[in-house]
Amino acid sequence: MKIYVIRHTSVDVKPGICYGQTDVDVAVSFDEEQKSVSKELELLSFGAIWSSPLLRCKKLAESLFPNEKIHFDPRLKELNFGDWEMLPWDEIYAQPDGKIWMDNYQTLATKNGESYPEMVERVSAFVQEIEKLNADNIAVVAHAGVIRILKSVIEKVAISELFENFKPAYASVTVFEINKHE
Question: What's the pTM?
Fold first, then answer.
């Protein structure tokens, strides 16, 4: 089974801002980016389509698959950054607890938010569910953090390697192959 994971398009947020689970809108470049993704997927058919319910993913999923049933799944949301949502990354890092988190992001929760182990747990549960599907191709519209965790779970890659070496671009398609568990 192949999973085509599509990162949402650019967002209407200034660079350097932490927006995690904040329901931000897409940037003005949406139509152009959507057309690029659509062209990349045009010859494929999908047995199931999943998406994060956040607006930036929902808009893309609905525009790419207008006549298909889309499963909006909260397990596909980006990391919940809690009190740090919509703050500049520099400001977060300047806070004592922000620096501690950034130095230990693989284990610690964000301030009043979520930890990567919690996110790995919910994304892993999603993977276990889709492994049971009888489909050759599945489309998933999600966020960079989710895509990194999918790569970690499916390809058994350490998360620490992914943040330095794997940076899914906006409106990019990453393909994973998983073995179905009968």
Answer: 0.94
Considering the four listed CATH numbers 3.40.50.1240, 3.40.50.720, 3.40.50.150, 3.30.390.10, the one that applies to the domain covering 2-177 is 3.40.50.1240
Nearest to 70 by CA among 162, 171, 142: 142
**pLDDT averaged per 10 residues in sequence order, the chain, 182 residues:** 97 96 97 98 95 98 97 98 97 94 91 94 96 93 96 89 86 90 48
- How far, in Å, CA of 101 to CA of 161, rounded? 17
Decide: 170 and 7 in contact? Cβ < 8 Å: yes
Candidates 122, 115, 160; CA nearest to 142 is: 122
H helix or E strand, kind and range, residue 137: strand 137-142
Other Cβ atoms within 10 Å of 178 Cβ, number: 16
Question: How high is the pLDDT of residue 165?
Answer: 82
CA distances from 91 to 24, 57, 67, 71 (A): 20, 27, 43, 36
pLDDT > 70 in the chain, percent: 98
CB 137 within 8 A of CB 47: yes
